Structure formats: C-alpha cells, structure tokens
Amino acid sequence: MDAASGKTPNRFGSNAVVTLAAILVSVCALAVSVYQAKIMRETQRASVWPFVEVLPSNTQNGGWLGITNKGVGPAIIQTVYLEVDGQPFRRWQTLFDALAPEDSINFTWSSVTGRVLAPNEEVRAIQLNPSDARRVAQIIGQMSFEICYCSVYDECWQTNLNRKTLPVDACVVNSDRRFSQ
C-alpha cells in the first residue's frame, strides 16, 4: 500500500498490459503464418500430383498395354518390373520367347522407364495385332507389371495392373529385376 495516497500500487501498469497484448497478438500472427505456410505447401504438392494407371486393352483392332497419367502434374517413371510366376523379364521378346516358344509374336513397344508423362498423356508400352493380342491376353493374366513413379517433389507411388496404387518412400532400383524396355 502506498503510504502517501492510501492506495495499493498497481503491479501492472498500462505499459505492461499493452506489452503483453502485443506479445499475444505476435504469437497468434506467427501461428497463423506457420499454418498458412503448411497449407500452401500442401496446395503446391496437390497441384503437381501425378496418378499413373496401367490399363490393358484388347479390341478388334489389336491390343496394347497403356500407361496413362490421370493426375494434374508430371509423372517421372523411375522403375518398371515385369514378372510371370515370380520370374522377372527385362524385355518383351524374352517374355514371349519363354511363354510362347513355338509362336512368333509380332509387336511394337515404347520405352517407359525414365520417361516423364505429362498430365493426360498415354504411352503404349506394347502394341499387338489382333491375332497376337488374343494369344497374349492369356499371358497378361499371369503377368505382374509394376511401375514406380515420382512427382517433381520426390513423392513416390507404386502401381500395377490391378490398379492398386500405394505411396512408397522412394523407388528402389533392382537392376536384376528391372524391365529395360
């Protein structure tokens, strides 16, 4: 108590209240800025998100194995693996020689590994004429065809013929199994 005035001294002067309010507002502004930056990063990532589908097609005009980027950003194809009953194949010709040694299968192919697919771009990994497409349709049912791809932010996914897409930490390159066409 102040002896001269008889009042209890105010521990918090008006300057202290203003200072505390300024600190509180600053902390709130910092929290909002951090949250806004987080949302902006998520928006940037979503704006370049690739989504790759592997789609076999068989029509009267022939058959093909198409790889399409249905996402909104480029898909960087890192690895492709092709297996039948656990045995890896590195080339289409090797696969057809092993599964249909008595028949000659005519096909055209496009390289997929290392390719960058733009949004809505499709590449036909292999294309066959109608008669060969009917014979190969049985082989495709036995096939495991997997693609690992990444976004420009190095976020990676693995997809397959069953349209099952899973996020992965990174695309692992196994040179003994890697499909080279």
In short:
The protein is an alpha+beta fold and 181 residues long.
Describe the structure in your own words.
The protein is an alpha+beta fold and 181 residues long. The protein is 30% helix and 31% strand. The chain is built from 3 helices and 10 strands; from the N terminus they run H-E-E-E-E-H-E-E-E-H-E-E-E. Strands 3, 4, 6, 8, 9 and 10 form a 6-stranded antiparallel beta sheet that branches. A 4-stranded antiparallel beta sheet has the order 1-2-7-5.
Please supply descriptive tags for the structure shown above:
alpha+beta; 30% helix; 4-stranded antiparallel beta sheet; 181 residues
Task: Give the biggest sheet.
Answer: 6 strands, antiparallel
**Which spans of ≥5 residues are poorly predicted at pLDDT below 50?**
none
Question: What's the helix-strand series?
Answer: HEEEEHEEEHEEE
Structural class based on helices, strands and sheet pairing: alpha+beta
Please give the count of helices.
3
Strand residue content: 25-35%
- Rough outline: rod-shaped
Beta-strand segment tally: 10
* Rg (C-alpha, Å): 30 Å
pLDDT average, as an integer? 86
Distance between the termini: 90 Å
Helix content: 25-40%
Question: What order do the helices and strands come in, and which of them pair?
Answer:
Blueprint: H1 14-47, E1 52-59, E2 62-69, E3 75-84, E4 87-89, H2 92-99, E5 107-109, E6 116-117, E7 122-128, H3 130-142, E8 143-150, E9 156-160, E10 166-168
